[in-house]
Give the backbone structure.
Amino acid sequence: MMNAYCWGLVSGLSSHLLKDKDYESIILADGLDHALSALEPTVYGQYMRGLSNDPSLSDIQSRIQTSYLDAYHEVISSLPEPDRGMADSLMRGVWDLANLKAIMRGARLGVDKDEMEKSLSAYGTMSKEKLLGIYLFDDQTLLREIPPQYRLPMELALAQKDPIMAEKAFERSFLEQMLSTCKGDVRDYVLAEADLLNLRTILMCKMRGVDPRSHIIDKGLSISSHLLEQLVRADLRSFAQFLVNTPYHDAVSRALSDAEDSPVEALDLSLSNVVWKNMETKSFLHPLSVNSTLAYLKRREREVNLLKAILAGKFHNLSKEKIRGLIS
């Protein structure tokens, strides 16, 4: 249970989140200069001051990332222990996980370092410089250089011949480690992530004719062990029916009906908001819980990603319609 100070801080910061009219104002601005000027009344205004007359896109986006990191540190440091340590480990771990999966995928596809740098998050425990320093090195160097908590997940991933299943093995091991250390609301968030991983993995295995049992986590928030076994046994046509009493039914139904050839990719898009919306609902019901902090940080992270996409569109002189398409 977080204290009243943290709740007050999160409530105050939440009131400054961008609204639809703010996004539209930036999109409608005549050119990049006016788009940046439209940010002046927002929390991002102070971070845009001092930009050169001809700023680079990387400088603009770096300042936006800095605004998020400042808010992140302020909010996380206001949490009492043990919630502070658990929430910080979770958030940074998720970013590290995404970055390490990106360099695994990039190495497999032969992506050069410049392109790889663009796909890396700046928020994890490992800096971009560190990640790029180990990019394209041999497996032993990779295992030696990454933080100790990621070595076992990475070892399990590298043992997989199938590159897609390697990523799933990495995710699974990471979530199992988090579940062994987290409690309370933070643990519930990790369990929800385990639900999503299991759904994606089972569907992927079914598409490939692989038994998913050795690739899933026997834990979840809304999917019990019994339901998990039913999903493993179900065919694709009846799969969604077993989820009717879970938060995931609509997303899975849409993914299976709208994208018969690639339901996993469609499912990733459909489920992207399920977890944080669930946290947001819990934060309204229990405002003094750590859910309020996690929900704010996820909303702010989403806001930063939308803002970066809009400003990238303005930087490259994209039409207003194309920019709206980037964030829809």
